[in-house]
Amino acid sequence: MNELFYGLITGLLFGFLLQKGRVLRYDKQLGALLLKDMTIIKFMLTSVVVAMVGTYLLVDLELAKLSIKTTILGANIIGGILFGLGWGLLGYCPGTSAGALGEGRWDSIWGIAGMLVGAGLYAEAFPTMKATVLTWGNFGKITVPQLLGINHWIIIIPIVAGALFLFRWIEKKGL
Q: Do 85 and 57 contact (CB within 8 A), yes or no?
């Protein structure tokens, strides 16, 4: 029950930040896709960096344990292409579709309907995909630091530095 409560609070806080950051707006989504407005890119990169540092800090303090999913290139590449097509066609990604609906933007209902249809199609195709796409480039449960055989902070610190550099560059360009 405690984990569900923390999940609810975290989800509400994240949704609040999505709304306050104005990343639920169609014009911001379109601006990101056209590389003219980096609001969403900055928001996503901030989320990834904070989560990466926080997660590994908690793991190092033995307050959390990593639950790594299997890396399967075939599934990741095809899934990424479908995600990009959906985002490009609709102008919302899955998370922002739900947030936009919460703000009363009824156009997002098409994305949510598409996600439900896609989930159903995936469930139907799963038995076939299990023997094909879901085996292409299967690297198992591995992280980049494990792949390179180095400590995770050797990867995290340059990523954080790169993100800060990128934020500064984006701000200088007025994006």
A: no
